[in-house]
Amino acid sequence: MRARAFALVAALLLALQPAAARAQQLVADLSEHLIAITTGFSGTDVLLFGATEGEGDVVVIVRGPESNAVVRRKSRVFGIWINTNQVTLTGVPAFYRVASSRPLGEVAPPQIRTRHQLGIENLRFGTQRQRTPAEIAEFRTGLLRNKERAGLFSADVGRVTFLGPRLFRARFQLPANVPTGTYTVETLLVQNGQVVAAQTTPMLVSKIGIGAEVFDFAHRHAAIYGILAVLVAVAAGWGASAVFRKS
């Protein structure tokens, strides 16, 4: 019922758009624009809903904030596994998911999937230093494997479901370890293999409550936080030893 209510709202929003906006043929929104991470957060689902003016396929891409990622390669040296090489990849999203109304290979040709980075195989990363294509491919594969293992990337394509000829919805799961920051949710309308309309919606993932205050303090005043942590540990150890002495 909740999903149908969202879809109905999307249809009404599309109908109320002025003529210039309706020419874009697409409107979409999220069930939540703020994902609050509190103590005990175990992940959540986010629902995107929307409507199209005409026929076509809908593809939705969820991307987390971009940053640099250091990928290391270990080699066995004298019987010990140690880091022997590393590459810093740039423009790496903290989180990536894609959903589509049909398999991506049926929705758009390879050049369109590459241009819009549809599917993890089409994600584009840079490097801080000049590297050979073979090196980039090797470390890129390692990064994707690590991200998938952490549940932050997925090679599986989610499902965009049409509730009628115009209304659609898609559901994304955010894991418990989802990074904080500003996310972008991009919705594409694809007709005859070409993107004819697009809309980008922001989504904020943020820590709130006492945990957020401690996290912020630790990053703003790292030295003081370290000293306090040591003092608390010493006090806890002294208190425990005093209890055992009395007993």
- Overall helicity: 25-40%
CATH class of the largest domain: Mainly Beta
Average residue pLDDT: 81
* CATH architecture title of the largest domain: Sandwich
Q: In what order do the strands lie side by side in the largest sheet?
A: 1-3-10-9-7-4-11-12-2
Instruction: Please give the count of helices.
Output: 7
Please give the alpha-carbon distance between the first and last residues: 61 Å
Largest sheet geometry: 9 strands, mixed
Indicate the proportion of strand residues. Answer: 35-45%
Query: What is Rg?
Result: 23 Å
- Kindly report the CATH topology of the largest domain: Immunoglobulin-like
Whole-number count of domains: 2
CATH superfamily of the largest domain: Macroglobulin (MG2) domain
Look at the helices and sheets and give the structural class: alpha+beta
Total E-strand runs = 12
Oligomer: single chain
Low-confidence stretches: 210-219
> What is the overall shape?
globular
- Element string (H = helix, E = strand): HHEEEEEEEHHEHEEEEHH
What does this entry look like structurally?
This protein is an alpha+beta fold. It folds into two domains: 2-208, Sandwich (Immunoglobulin-like); 209-247. Helices cover 33% and strands 39% of the residues. The protein has seven helices and twelve strands. The protein has helices at 2-16, 19-22, 104-107, 110-115, 133-149, 210-220, 222-246; strands spanning 26-30, 34-37, 44-52, 57-63, 66-77, 80-93, 96-100, 126-127, 158-162, 167-174, 181-191, 194-207. Strands 1-3-10-9-7-4-11-12-2 form a nine-stranded mixed sheet. Helix 6 packs across helix 7. The longest helix has 25 residues, at 222-246. It is globular, with a radius of gyration of 23 Å. The termini are far apart. Residues 210-219 have low confidence and may be disordered.
